[in-house]
Amino acid sequence: MRILLSVSLCNNKMSTEGNEALSPPTRQPNPQQSASSKRLQQTQAQVDEVVGIMRVNVEKVLERDQKLSELDDRAGEVLNELCKRINLVSAQFLKEIGFNG
């Protein structure tokens, strides 16, 4: 039993001593990876810029839609008022000329 225990201890010691050799060495990025990473960062920056511009554009479209809706409402009100005035003036004119329709 002592032999097994000492062999086991020896194996454990060897396995812990070898762990430094098992860890991967720190690698320097190669030039291709650096260039690729830089291109990716540039592309991401461009995408972020486009997203910002699109958000501003969407906000402007929504504001424009609101203003157009208000303008349409006002135009409808003015048109309705003009129709009432035309009907009133027409009725007065027909009354003056004695038209009984």
Summarize the structure.
By secondary structure, this protein is mostly helical. The chain is 86% helix and 0% strand.
How is this structure best described in words?
By secondary structure, the chain is mostly helical. It has a domain at 42-100. Helix content is 86%, strand content 0%.
List keywords for this structure.
101 residues, mainly alpha, 86% helix, disordered N terminus, coiled coil
Poorly predicted ranges: 1-10
Nearest-angstrom radius of gyration? 43 Å
H-E order:
HHH
- What's the main sheet like? none
CA-based shape: rod-shaped
Structural class: mainly alpha
Helical amount: over 70%
End-to-end distance? 129 Å
> What do the pLDDT scores average to?
83
**How many helices in DSSP terms?**
3
Number of extended strands: 0
Could you tell me the strand content as a percent range?
under 5%
Keywords: Coiled coil
Protein name: V-SNARE coiled-coil homology domain-containing protein
Domain V-SNARE coiled-coil homology: 39-101
Biased composition (Polar residues): 29-41
